[in-house]
Amino acid sequence: MESMEMESERVNPWKRKKTEQVRDEIDYFRMLADDVIIGRILSRFAMDEAARTSVLSLRWRYFWTHSFASLDFDHSFFLHQLEERMDPGTDARILMYEEQDGWIKSFDPFELLKLILRHLLSSCPLLETLAVSNSSQRLERFKVICTGHDSKLKQLEIISCQYLETLEISASNLVSFTYDSGIGIPVVGVLPSNMTINYKHITNLKEVCFGGRRRYVLLNDFLHLTTYDHSSYLKVLKLTMISSSLIIYYDHEWNEWPNFEIMKEKEAHAYNCVEEVKVIGFYGSDPEVEFIECIIKNAPNLKKLIIDPISPYHYGVTCENKIRDSKDYSLARRSARIMEPNIPSYVQFVVL
């Protein structure tokens, strides 16, 4: 017994020495700034992995909640998990995805969407990109209000929200705005005959893109804004075109082209700052050519004009290469090349 105590006495001083040495070492993790931990470390983890770091210390407890640059609200995973766990014989299975807006009957999905978006815009000052796409019939009015000094929203995309009637944008740091309603046949109900966009506090907006139904009217409205200095800020202008057959079939919109004479006389200054124009879905029709000629004549600082005959709805799909090899695509490229002699030499003309 005495020998064991003596052995313990011989060991304990060594342990104390090692413990003191460890305490004297520098804890580099404590020296890291919060932004480094969140942006450089936790942002590379999956959500469940990042959440596990909350037990490391009180300081790390909530770091994981700030570490995600992209949030995708998708209920399909929940539905899949629910379906796997339900009794195959239960009558509740009738609730499973009968309609996109009715997957749970006890609350309004549109109200949930509004709640999520309102919370994101008010509680996530570091949010830089907001994309709302393929919304339900219920999204008829939408407000994007980000005017605080700490707001960082720079990019806004509203895609395939066909039932949207009114959009209000007030974002002082917004740099890029894309609106494309899509051209598909409505699944439920009737598409709205009018769609308006109200702009406030968009002094930093440099790039705009319009597509889908009423794109020409929305473009014309934007160019006639009196609260926005186009000549000082607008740098890139994009307009997505659709083949004439689709336009005639879906939205009969050729008569809604903007009045080019009015645009030339009253809003010629709106193009002074435009340096790049990209036309997507070019088909070679007379209104498309007239629009391009109008832009060229009224944009003295234009540096680059890009013509892409492919429809914007075919970007990234498996058949994209096949479409680019098609006869219609070749004819559209040929129509674009016909304009080349009329393009000023100082403008880089690109046909994809």
Automatic annotation (TrEMBL):
Coiled coil: none annotated. InterPro entries: At1g61320/At1g61330-like, FBD. Residues 274-307 form the FBD domain. It comes from the Eukaryota. This is F-box/FBD/LRR-repeat protein. It comes from Senna tora.
